[in-house]
């Protein structure tokens, strides 16, 4: 995953959250969009914030392994009837092949992309680090993964397996309901997942569950929770550790209403070339959700996505009374 | 606080939990009791497990600052009508002055106490450490504090202030109910609390809410939660950090049914000689309970204590299906 | 310990370090001095930076337990011939009684002191926290302790025991040299130390070894080391854990040349009213210095203090090539 | 990397270290060999300890991505003149193709391998975890990487690039010496390295620098250092974080004399399909070795490998006075 675009009805608030609290740096602005990156993200930007009347996903950009792979995957997506054609790209992004997921999420494939080079004052002595660790906020190191809600998990999963080479590492089924797939965690590399798909119980299509950024240090999730509490950012659940993927999680809602996950470690890494998909049953799901004592609130975690459904506007209203400090704070 | 005695209807299970999972070491056995200590506890034992038909508190032993103070405090308790007389002590404990708290918790004061000296093989190169850190389990360093349920928080709190020199650091009141005290956190030293008192909504008297052991390292609470999950010990809530005391908490139920807190840091330390008591209102209690996203389950956290009330037997039954490994495990 | 004053020949650089990298907040400026505090420090300021041609200690302020104690201690210091008389105080500090340590360190006692109250935007929902955790830098929570070099450790130690009520928790002797005291760690509360005294091998008097600030979270020392590396602050040793006090340490030199310790936990807390002083022998000192594999460099750790001796100017010159970003950095 | 074999002249001591202190579990014994695994290792064993008169590497087993790849790589190695022929395998390992590295390290390729299935009592509720986290020792999760000393880094590196598909992620050159390669870090997946090669300044061939096991939690390196200090295991350096690979390291010597690294995080993960090799110059090597203040001791880190050279026997003698507890300890 190279980049993601989030829609936000509160561009100033979202910008405050991602730059002041999460310490991301701005790399460009254009019209209603602001481009941001984490300090170890390899490319020009990993997050594009765009002003919009409703929150949600604007786009997900996947980088292929080669120019040939881009052409090959584009053909496969066209054959699947999901392609939306070639684009001329974006700031820092060359031409892309657009498509939508079976559930309607906007995505694109790209090969040509601008690698980030820091100006001298921000170059790090740690040579694998693309820029100095920022001194403001509690900065995650890179964009990690995306979790999508889908009205039909299996269809969404299989498309990604068949056209883009994803493997399903873990899945949850409801054995009491004939084995319906409730969730799936997919990866094209050693990570436990780069994309997850969870069933949208409301039946809505094309919604975002969350976008995740990676710390790699469990304590940083505790620190992030403390800063969110101090500065009025709504915490949904965590810090705790998922049984599924073994990832250390913290879920919060950024001021625009999108759910953001902060990922305190890498979870399980998979190195077996012939690994099997692990299947959880809904009846034993507790450990899958959290190894510790965290409860993922049923009234939000399993039904709230962006854009929200009508009934969810009320949930959003409750978050508006935050004591956020929009302009940041002086030393 | 020098030592505590817990009653347990499952002595073997409790012993497994405290020695195999928490890595405490046994220092003596006598009749139906087993004496245990953490590796930095200064005295002969900090925990005495005693077989009993119901869980709950057997005793709490407070060490005075001098022999004179023991006599002075005993007199004050006798004047308050709470003294139960001098005893000849216990293994590792000299004569004590027994008393009950206003709510009925059994307690004792002691000066003469046996300091622990490790056998040569267990002596640590770290000279302030009374014995080597164990290689088994995930060992807490020392007994930290006790939390008592009381039918009347204010009475309980004031007795300890007036007769034993405790100061109230933080308290919670219900402003909507005329300012009734719901909880109080008391200390005689720099710690945020050595004793807490929380209102027993069931009206029962003399019950234990929890006994706490100290790690001093936040990550160890996450590790402990993982081991509890793996070995079938019921987790109630956490790991997270309380706003009150700023202590990092994990609540679990040991196999005998008593709630145990593992404390991953020291929380706020108080060094002001003229500090004020901090007062939380029940309406703003969320941050007081947890800085992160943890929820303390209303059906247990605010009503369950040991010994349990009749209705609570059902809660206990649910914990019996644990996949605990009583005999430990071979390497 | 209520506050400390540091002299610095690079006021701008020191201010950058304490505010931008350590996230302290400025509370006042007056003439050549800037007043700073950590976010949980209880008083108006804990650190006063004063421009001076050489680095070193300007003052250490100890708060007494009561107004009576102030008078009593002042009398004792006068009788010891160390008193320098009453002052009218400073910004946020009422009248003080000045004195010098036997080795010549400037100090003062105070009772009347201004407690810090945050403006509304910086008030924390965590009620024991005097102000919100800052969003800039990696902020320690409070001033922790001071370590002084002394030409005669025993004389320095005994004066503090006899006139100010300090207890010696741990000490190091050179058994091969007739038991000469090399170092002593003293406390008036549960902490492992609030003041340490280490022998100045150069025979110089009245020098500072280091001033320490407290994180209470071990990971934060690793984070601080990373930021110091990134931003050109010279690291002397750590992160590691001392055997003495069991404190998690990181030693760095702030741009003015003073050694600063960041303290990642509280180390051992002492609750025994009748504890003994622990004595380390120089021959077994390795574990005392570091539990892990850190080495404290002999060419700086045991000889460098501030103000430096003539030969130490060369050491300081080496630190000048840092790639510090004086003006901070934009998001 | 699927498994490694270590030679040890102190089989009992080495077994104590890997099982009692590091909490690995034994899966088989045969003649002079003991087979061990970490709790998340996927295969029958990841470490084989074999009694031998000198420490060192017995073998390294690499698993190919498919049966075809095994044949293809075997042919390439034969063509390079390094193949030593097919074997019938080992306990838990099917037929292998043996080869030696250009510098003389014994290695093998394997496809058929026994996946580990835990007995019911050790099965974990966390379904991606092959067995419960042990309750003894401080258990790493899996075998991570190997670091080999080589008389010629470039030759060793290029063979692995050309015949086995490794990519060089980072390397160190001595620009002052014509750009000679001093070290190289290679990987076939997203990890920063699975194999490193460092120049053997003594000119000896085929030696092991270290074998590494992965915790994935930085605090566990601090805990491991503390246990090593308590139980007499020699610590060489750390805990700290390398600039190269950004891995959190702790180096210790197991009782047999082999250097073992404990890896507290995953370091940098590389997801760019077209990433460049990062080149460090020896003159700027400080940050590469450690981000914090750790110093890697020149008298051991850059010259000691196993088997040791003659002059290194004296180093080994010094480690024999450890206060190791061979039989473990009772609770």
TrEMBL record, chains A, B, C, D:
Pfam families (UniProt xref): Glyoxalase (PF00903)
InterPro entries linked to this entry: Fosfomycin_Res_Enzymes, Glyas_Bleomycin-R_OHBP_Dase, Glyas_Fos-R_dOase_dom, VOC_core
Location of the VOC domain: 1-112, 142-265
SUPFAM superfamilies: Glyoxalase/Bleomycin resistance protein/Dihydroxybiphenyl dioxygenase (SSF54593)
Protein name: Catechol 2,3-dioxygenase
Record GO terms (molecular function): dioxygenase activity
Species in which this protein is naturally found: Pseudonocardia broussonetiae
Keyword hit for Disulfide bond: no
Keywords: Dioxygenase, Oxidoreductase
């Amino acid at each position: 995953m190279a980049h993601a675009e989030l829609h936000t009805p509160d561009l100033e608030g979202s910008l405050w959250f991602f730059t002041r609290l999460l310490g991301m740096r701005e790399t460009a602005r254009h019209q209603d969009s602001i481009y941001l990156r984490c300090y170890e993200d390899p490319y020009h930007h990993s997050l594009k914030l765009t002003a919009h009347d409703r929150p949600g996903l604007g786009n997900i950009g996947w980088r292929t392994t080669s120019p040939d792979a881009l052409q090959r995957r584009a053909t496969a997506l066209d054959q699947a009837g999901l392609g939306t054609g070639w684009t001329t790209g974006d700031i820092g992004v060359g031409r892309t092949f657009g498509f939508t997921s079976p559930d309607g999420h906007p995505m694109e494939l790209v090969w040509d992309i601008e690698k980030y080079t820091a100006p001298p004052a921000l170059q790090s002595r740690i040579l694998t680090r693309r820029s100095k660790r920022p001194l403001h906020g509690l900065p995650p190191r890179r964009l990690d993964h995306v979790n999508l809600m889908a009205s039909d998990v299996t269809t969404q999963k299989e498309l990604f397996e068949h056209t883009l080479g994803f493997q399903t590492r873990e899945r949850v089924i409801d054995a009491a309901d004939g084995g319906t797939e409730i969730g799936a965690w997919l990866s094209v590399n050693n990570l436990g997942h780069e994309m997850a798909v969870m069933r949208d119980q409301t039946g809505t299509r094309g919604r975002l569950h969350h976008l995740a950024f990676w710390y790699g240090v469990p304590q940083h999730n505790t620190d992030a929770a403390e800063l969110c509490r101090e500065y009025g950012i709504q915490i949904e659940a965590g810090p705790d550790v998922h049984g599924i993927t073994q990832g250390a999680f913290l879920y919060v809602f950024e001021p625009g209403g999108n759910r953001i996950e902060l990922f305190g470690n890498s979870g399980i890494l998979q190195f077996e070339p012939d690994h099997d998909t692990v299947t959880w049953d809904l009846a034993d799901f507790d450990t899958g959700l959290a190894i510790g004592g965290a409860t993922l609130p049923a009234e939000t975690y399993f039904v709230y996505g962006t854009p929200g459904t009508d009934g969810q506007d009320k949930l959003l209203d409750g978050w508006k009374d935050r004591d956020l400090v929009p302009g940041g704070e002086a030393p």
